[in-house]
Amino acid sequence: MAETVDNPGDARFEIRGDGETAGFVDYRLRGSTISLLHTEVGDRFEGQGLGSRLVRAVLDSARERGLEVLPHCPFVRSWIARHPEYLELVPEDRRAEFDL
Q1: Contact 30, 70 (CB under 8 A)
Q2: Is the pTM of this model over 0.90?
Q3: Residue 1: band (very low, low, confident or very high) from pLDDT cuts 50, 70, 90
Q4: Residues ≥6 apart with Cβ < 8 Å to 54
Q5: For residue 58, what is the domain's CATH number?
Q6: Is residue 99 in a domain?
Q7: Residue 19 confidence class, pLDDT cut points 50, 70, 90
Q8: 97 in a structural domain
């Protein structure tokens, strides 16, 4: 079972499975805004849905913390487009910038 953790020292959320980091989302936190910069899942873990689980956990964390989300990462941006229940996290006046 994979677990997702925030690793603020490295400014990234990580998903861990089989005792190792399977993937991560790099971020930059400024005040009440989190910019999601890059998502990566290791080749060995591709096709298992870990990227989606990771992004959902990151966005759920942002929601719980009351953060606005700027999805600079194309994977995160497309994931939000497919899951409109998370669109509210992206400030309305910034959505066009991300084609949302």
Answers
A1: no
A2: yes
A3: low
A4: 4, 13, 15, 23, 24, 25, 39, 41
A5: 3.40.630.30
A6: no
A7: confident
A8: no
Tokens describing residue 93? 């006046």
Of 39, 81, 31, residue with least CA distance to 58: 39
- Number of compact structural domains in the chain: 1
Per residue in 30-81, pLDDT tens? 999 999 999 999 999 989 999 999 999 999 999 999 999 999 999 999 999 9
DSSP string, 9-52: GGTEEEEEETTEEEEEEEEEEETTEEEEEEEEE-GGGTTSSHHH
Q: Give the pair of three-digit tokens for residue 58.
A: 């990151």
| 28: its two tokens | 């930059």
Between CA 68 and CA 65 the distance in angstroms is 9
Instruction: Please report where in the chains the tokens 């060995």 appear, as a residue.
Output: 44
Residue written as token pair 């990580």: 14
